[in-house]
Design brief:
Oligomer: single chain
Shape: globular
Number of strands: 12
Number of domains: 2
CATH architecture of the largest domain: 3-Layer(aba) Sandwich
Distance between the termini: 78 Å
Strand order of the largest sheet: 2-1-3-4-5-11
Number of helices: 13
Helix content: 40-55%
Structural class: alpha/beta
Length: 369
Amino acid sequence: MKKRILSVALVAVMALSLALTGCGGDKKSGGDDGDKAESKGKKVGVAMPTQSSERWIKDGKNMKEKLEKLGYEVDLQYAEDDVQAQVSQIENMIATGANCLVVASIDSSALVNVLKQAKDAEIPVIAYDRLLMDTDAVSYYASFDNKGVGTAIANYIVEKADLENAAEPQTIEFFMGSPDDNNAVLLHEGVMEVLQPYLDNGKLVCKSGRTSFEDTCILRWSQETAQQNCENYLSGFYADEDLDIACSAFDGFAYGIKAALEGAGYTDANWPLITGQDAEVMAVKNITSGKQTMSIFKDTGLLADKCVTMVEAVLEGTDPEINDTETYDNGKLVVPSYLCTPVAVDKDNYQEVIVDSGYYTEDEIKNAE
């Protein structure tokens, strides 16, 4: 009887030891997944537009990491600017049991039907950085102040070109965002609200005459189209006079403008002021070398944080943090939004804003290609 008691005790000790070893082994074998929280059994579909722009890669990576740390399964998909591919990806997310969708659209008008499927399935949808238009299926919107981005670009031009005190008119051409992106419309509004008075009083001269959104928008934010437009402006309107300012809504446009200027023989002596948006690492490198004047820094880590808190709130039945309930009317409803603040970055403050914050290292900027 005594032997039997000892045997049972020994088995119990061995079982406890194995259990403890097993727990330790699972934790160790997790590797990079060690920071993930225990699964909550809920799945989030994240639909991003493209990997051709660095900012969307960072957005997707940040979103996935932060959601997984909260214990959610994440299905992250990039559609490479193929509208139908994005529709199919979202359909698949719905079919495979997503409990929430985060959508940065390519063309939101093409998503109306698939978003209705999400609503019918009672799946909440959060618009990420690009407002989803003409649908009542969107619950919340996380973005930057897009009109504020345009205002920041224009105010920078006013200050750096010293338009208040300039003795001579300065020439300007506009390169605005995609017509299927509501953010681009708001950005143009912000730009023109500030710069239109200077166009009216002659301190700014747009020799092409193209200042309206319809005349300056560039489909799918195409760098190649921006370069072609700039080449056409330079050959058609600036053969005998320099272009002073290129008001560009995107870093990718600035790269195309840079190529067009180099092809036209511009040098440091007559290089124009060039704006941008997103503070991509190549843009920051160009800023340090004088080939781009400024960019709008949009901290995608901060934006991802705000969107993730929205996702967590809707999945756990609480109210997310909102700071705008008036601006973003998508044609069906005013979408409750959280708007982050954009920051203008140039040669004078990139170190403080970009490097000191850890967003990029000096080596990343120096070695950008």
